[in-house]
Design brief:
With about 55 residues, the protein is mainly α. About 55% of the residues lie in helices and about 0% in strands. The protein is built from two helices and no strands. The radius of gyration is 19 Å and the shape is elongated. The termini are far apart. This is Spore protein. It comes from Pedobacter montanisoli.
């Protein structure tokens, strides 16, 4: 059975939805009590610590 090509609209939707999921996975607005706690060795956490120290 041959592979059918997706129509342009479907290819676009596939790409957009993939990018949306990727964006959600990379989202850093973690809530308190969330199951996915932000790591303290995370680069973002290090940057925030430096910015906090500089703003004092």
């Amino acid at each position: 059975m041959g592979v059918t090509r997706l129509k342009r609209k479907d290819r676009y939707n596939k790409t957009v939805s993939r990018l949306e999921v990727q964006g959600l996975k990379l989202a850093t607005n973690l809530e308190l009590g969330s199951r996915s706690k932000q790591s303290t060795t995370d680069q973002l956490a290090k940057n925030n610590a430096i910015l906090a120290a500089l703003s004092k």
